[in-house]
Amino acid sequence: xxxxxKQTETRKEITAERMFLNYxxxxxxxxxxxxxxxxxxxxxxxxxxxxxxENPRRSLLRYVFRDAYEGMKNSAEKLDIENWTKEAIRDYxxxxxxxxxDTARGRVPxxxxxxxxxxxxxxxxxxNAIVVVDFSGxxxxxxxxxxxxKEGNTVAIHFRQIVDILD
Length: 167
Fold this sequence. Notes:
Elements: H1 3-10, H2 16-24, H3 28-33, H4 39-50, H5 58-64, H6 66-79, H7 86-103, H8 110-116, E1 119-127, E2 130-135, E3 138-143, E4 154-158, E5 161-165
Helix pairs in contact: 5-6, 6-7
């Protein structure tokens, strides 16, 4: 059995809702700072981010992360698949999200916009909570978060933390 296959078997399978929250969740504080999320919804999503055992409600995710939900819906339509699939979520965040971020210039502080971009890179070093990721020759330290990335994994990064393993 190959190492990649072993890694896939040991990696905990997550729901599409949890994957969506992994990608969209890092934007929660930015939304709070801009006053576009209700305090009670902020607290509920914060609890869901911390407690991975509970599956997030789709209605809450649609409400708090409206733009991302609409983007995922558009990706699903383009791919001719159901909305709440991992393929639609990945397609939106990896291929379309940064275009949406670019349209927010002037409405969202530039420092938040630059961190909000989703990028893909390869893990080259892992040490405790910090992971070194190579982005086409440029290396950057990012947070591992709750994703158990290993050296050699291709990962998606959002707000300087790993949100998904792509290989």
